[in-house]
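Figure S4 source data
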Amino acid sequence: MDESDITTPTSPESRRQAAAEALAALGVQRSEHQALSVQCPRSHHLAAVYKTNAGLVYHAIEGPHAHGSRDRVDTGHHGTPSGTEYVDFLAGDSLSDDGLPAWCDCGPYTLSRSELLEAAAGPPRTLHVP
């Protein structure tokens, strides 16, 4: 896909849907396209940024959830899985807040979109937030 083929979504919901579709297009091996991993001071995973054909995409899970392939999936008392996926283009638009939601075992975090953009501009790495 050529960047000239990309249309700018008109609402936050459609922008996040387009970002989710771009992330899904990477397939099951999306870790090969990871530009940035974000961790808390205790090295819990908070979020990731991926390079897609549509641009940099931010991905995080809000709320309690399993963190790895060997973790058991957290399930609520009524059988509903915990954690909500949050996906958005990292660049955002004029209506986008700078704060992006993230969560780990330490609790909720708000990550700066502009700081993540700056960190993702370099080679792939892990960013530890305070």
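Figure S5 source data
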Amino acid sequence: MLEFDISQIKDSATKAAIQRLRDAFREQPFLRGEWEFFEITFTKAQDNFKYPHGFDFVPKDVLQTYISTDTAVIWNFHLFDRNNLDITIAAPCTVRAFIGRFEQSGVV
């Protein structure tokens, strides 16, 4: 999540403005976390396809935004690891999604 370190700000008006901005960001659920946008193209059906994600953590959330064809896309969350996503695709397609993790007090 985007953090604002306001401890070094001396001007009280500037500090208050940054605090309001920080609070506004915290109120937006999508901004509470670490997300990357992915577009993955499959040329054939795939079972348990390993796709490198590049995070330094195990992703827990997928916000799928697009599938180019009418096919099944299964995100095998239980098989995600620190290096790869695991996806099963029933037919060729392009999939787009925000992948990462949502963060909330006490929940990651």
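The radius of gyration is 18 Å. The chain has two domains: 1-31, 32-102.
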